[in-house]
Amino acid sequence: MKKTLSVLLAAVLLAGCTTASSSAASSSAASVEEETEAVFSTSAYQDQIDAYVNAVDMDYAYNLAYTLSTDTSMHENALGFRNSGSDAEHKAAEFIAEEMKSIGLTDVEMVPVTVDKWQFNGASLTLEGSEIALEPVSYMVNGTDEDGITAEIVDVGTGFAADYEGLDVEGKIVLVGVDQWNESWIDGYIYEAEEHGAAAIVSYDLDGYGRASSDDHQIQDICCEDVMPTVIITRNEYDELKAEIDAGHTLCTLTVDSVMEENSGTSYNVIGYIKGKSSDQQIIFSGHYDMYFTGFQDDCSAIATAMAMAKGMIDSGYVPENDIVVVAHGAEEWGATGTEFDWTRGAWEMIHTAHPEWAEKTLAMFNFELSAFDDGGDQFAVSCVPEYSTLVCNLIDAGALDNAVSEYSEGIMYGTYDTTTMEDGVSYRDMGVPYFINVTDTCAGNRSEDEYGWTQLNYHTESDNASTYSEKVMRANISVFGSIAIAVDQSPATMLDLRCGANELTWLDEDYAAEAGVDTEEYRDALTALYDYADEIYAEGAEINERYFAASDEEKEAVREEAEEYNKKVHEIFKTYQDEFVGIEFSSDIVTKHMGYEDNLVVLDDTIACLEEGDVEGALGNAWMINAVTEYNYYLFSYDAVQKIEYHVDADEDDYKWWGENKGYVLAHTGEATMSLLAKSEEENPDVSEELAVYKAEREAQLALYKETVEAEIEAMKALVK
After folding, report:
1. Average pLDDT of the segment spanning 566-574
2. How far is CA 113 from each of CA 68, 78, 263, 290, 346, rounded to the nearest angstrom?
3. What is the pLDDT of residues 649-678, one digit of tens each?
């Protein structure tokens, strides 16, 4: 059924705008590429790129990552940890500030920002009449008093609603097996336990994350309020505990020294500069230094990558045209309670509160996450906002990155992956800062579907340590992104290609749009005009750069001044793209705004079609995908528990969403119907007329929201061209 604007797509989709979300190439791509190649060259600065790559100091990069990971003076407890606003985070900030000075960065500063504080000092769990003495790991909630909670511990299996049937857990400690990869996030398990009056949760991993070792703990951000003390133990500890419970030892004492204080914490974003010939514009190298456990990859390696990039530039004698700012962010893993959007708080405060002026002056941000592990791939890949994809392809065509990826047998992927929401770049993008990020295991090598990747094995566990280090991968990240940064810095006119952002708008289902009452011809005309405008702008920038590199030294300054005005215009449009066209499904997938409603319409239609044929099983095989899979929680938990999850992602609710604000969707309110279908699924020929009516009504509501969103996009496109 899905029919996109295929005619328009053929006219505007560029080979240079090759992101993971693009699935076709235009017939006119070759001529566009030829035109781009005629004006793009790295000859004026290729020697500087090569000198930088040759100056990369891998001993420095590894040693810094190792120190940040293992130095116990910067740890919060015996397992490591460096949490939002904690004492350990503050000590690490001081260390990083001194390290920045030692490699030659100037104007070093620890910038304070307000966050929700979480300091986890330790925990204990004992079982009366047994030798059980465990040290659980707390989630981002307040713990107990020093006496702890002494109560019966009850094993509730997988912690879903059905598991509580026939059990009395009022005031008791529940033992819950969780799977946050395949089933639900920890907040669902917490809300369900709350529904049954539990006093605390002791969780362990059944599957999903923490697969490297059964002796590992693993922890994720909590995405909910401070409901009750919540901890996790290892799988092997669960086996020991379960055996004692089965033997009749059920009186448990849980003591948790965990302090969570809303809006009363201070995190420091540490900054240092390589001063450019001008400070009117800047380029950012960044990572975060808060961590779970000893976090060698996440994210000590990233801080080391950003610092090694700066050191490589200094050591190679590179003198930037614009300021290079190295930023070590705090409070990335978690920094805000009572919200689905609880991560990247430190970065959000940095760009929205501490330095909002950075938004219009930052040419590019290079952010890093888990930048030193090998995912098994033979080809290097780059992730960035779509508008920087053309630059990456041009650099590949020019051979500018060949030296940087020399250890990869298949070189570098032609094209880029779009960014996600899983790191600090999302907070900067929200303010209109275009950015790059290294690819982790989103495009791993030859791995079967049932084989665990690095994220499921090591992420947020004790196994994220220096044993996972890959010099090859870290060197490539330092070399490739530093080379791209030099290209951005040397070219006076930004090489953001706004045509690529326009390409993202080509994915519109004409059938749904027409049914909703959208004038699809008006949409086509507006998008064609926007693309033509973006094409003119890109040509203008290419002409400025071509003229600059051909100019005499005396003429170059005037061209750079002209380029700065051009850059302001381009970045203003890029910011408008983020405000008007970029949406976020649930809290993870970045899409064009109307796509959230369009995706819901597809799932609702499939669900309705099954019900009209009397196929309840088929309907349930589709309905779980409603609201970007949020609906699946109704298959697991009580209605009221899921309502609390939905509250945090429903655009209709008055819940501040940080970087998710104004990018989410009004949910389809089908939960009761879905739960009713689940209850009737065992019946023979059940009457599902009431449920069918709900799905149809919500479809109409989603169609109206779809129309409203698409028409707003039309007006935004027109306004940009005007």
Report:
1. 97
2. 21, 27, 10, 14, 7
3. 998 886 668 899 899 999 999 999 999 999
CB 502 within 8 A of CB 106: no
Q: What is the DSSP string of 338-357?
A: SSS--S-HHHHHIIIII-TT
Beta-carbon-side half-sphere exposure of residue 66 (alpha carbons within 13 Å)? 12
62-83 pLDDT, tens per residue? Answer: 999 999 999 999 999 999 999 9
Q: What is the pLDDT of residues 258-298, one digit of tens each?
A: 999 999 999 999 999 999 999 999 999 999 999 999 999 99
pLDDT of 655: 65
Omega before residue 299 within 30° of 0, cis:
yes
Residue 458 has pLDDT above 50, yes or no: yes
pLDDT above 60 for 619: yes
**Whether the predicted pLDDT of 455 surpasses 70:** yes
Alpha carbon separation from 434 to 347, 350, 573, 662 (Å, rounded):
14, 16, 11, 19
Place 22 in a pLDDT band, splitting at 50, 70 and 90.
Answer: very low
Neighbouring C-alpha atoms within 13 Å toward the C-beta of 33:
20
For residues 180 and 206, what is the distance between their CA atoms, to the nearest angstrom?
A: 9
**Which residue pairs from 528-533 have beta carbons closer than 8 angstroms and sit at least 24 positions apart in sequence?**
528/8, 528/11, 528/12, 529/717, 529/718, 529/721, 530/502, 530/505, 530/717, 530/720, 530/721, 531/11, 531/12, 531/499, 531/502, 531/503, 533/720, 533/721
pLDDT at 5 over 80: no
β pairing state of 362-367 and 278-288 = parallel
Tokens of 668: 């389809």
Question: Alpha-carbon torsion 293, 296, 297, 303, what sign?
Answer: positive
The 3-class SS string of 458-520 reads: HCCECCCCHHHCCHHHHHHHHHHHHHHHHHHHHCCCCCCCHHHHHHHHHCCCHHHHHHHCCCH
As a whole number of angstroms, the distance between CA 187 and CA 38 comes to 54
**Residue ranges of domains in the chain, CATH in brackets:** 6-13+27-42+501-581 (no CATH), 46-115+266-490 (3.40.630.10), 119-262 (3.50.30.30), 589-721 (no CATH)
- 137 sits in the region (left: phi over 0; alpha: psi -120 to 50; else beta) called beta
Closest CA to 382 of 366, 397, 398: 366
Of the two residues 200 and 377, the one the predictor is more confident about is 200
The pLDDT confidence band at residue 448, using thresholds 50, 70 and 90, is low
Residue 54 corresponds to which tokens in the numbers above? 């040759």
Neighbours of 166 (CB within 10 A): 5
- Alpha carbon of 499 to those of 22, 398, 472, 495, 658: distances in Å? 13, 21, 34, 11, 28
What contacts 149, CB < 8 A, 6 or more positions away? 173, 199, 200, 229, 253, 254, 255
**Are 414 and 439 within 8 A, CB to CB?**
no
Rounded to whole angstroms, the maximal C-alpha distance in the chain is: 87
